Amino acid sequence: ADEPCRGSAVATLEDGGDAKPLILPVDTLNPLKKMLEDADECEVLVDHDGRKITFRYDGQSFTTKVIDGTYPPYERIIPQAFPIAFRLGREDTALALRRAGSISDGISIPVSLAFADSELTVTCKGKDGEESEDACGATSIKGKTAITLGMASRNIIWAIDSLQGTEAVEIFIVEPNAAVCVMGKGDGDRRHLRVSMPMRI
Q: Which CA distances in Å does 80 have to 13, 111, 173?
């Protein structure tokens, strides 16, 4: 399953050669991935009306609802090439985001991501005007070496956490005010992309 857009994810099940896409809530992916991280295969059960799906493995089971509707054509907003890209340490970046966002009240408020001088500076403003900042290393690998954009901290942390199994991730940017910011493992496999939309800050 992949999560190209905020709020939902798409999984494809094959039954007798026929592929049937199912839309799952995005919050199910990380716990499901954790349960199945050592599994070569698992049992998947879909109820008769297609509204719930259950995954079973090694005595554990995970059930989630299936979202009605058609998955949006996310491929249309994801370019085939990106003019700007940076490489970051996965754990260091997640830690900087969590530290800077610690002043928030749990709501995913915007954070400023400023890339410059081989560093990413994360700045977060609290609801009463207070400000928190943290930083981590960042290497420019394509295009501009300095750029600032606003993101929802929770979305970026989720994207980084979902790309486990690698020490580094890459963040691809079209432009600060563009409609897409993509994080990937840097292995060139577009199935590993995680998308988050920039926000005005």
A: 26, 27, 12
0.90 cut: is pTM over it? no
Compute φ and ψ for 40, nearest 5 degrees: -80, -30
**Beta strands 18-25 and 8-15, pairing class:** antiparallel
For residue 45, the 8-state DSSP code is E
User: pLDDT value at position 36?
Assistant: 85
Between CA 191 and CA 40 the distance in angstroms is: 18
- Cα-trace Rg, the chain: 18
**Sheet architecture: strand order including 18-25:** 2-5, 8-15, 18-25
In this predicted structure, the answer to whether residue 164 has a pLDDT above a threshold of 80 is no
d(CA 64, CA 3): 16
Structure tokens at 198: 């920039």
Q: How far apart are CA 200 and CA 76, in angstroms?
A: 22
Cα 35 vs. chain centroid, distance in angstroms? Answer: 18
The residue among 196 and 65 whose pLDDT is bigger is 65
- Of 77 and 37, the one with more pLDDT: 37
Write the DSSP string, 67-130.
Answer: B-S----GGGGS-SS-SEEEEEEHHHHHHHHHHHGGGS-SS--EEEEEEETTEEEEEEE-TTS-
Note the pLDDT of residue 161: 78
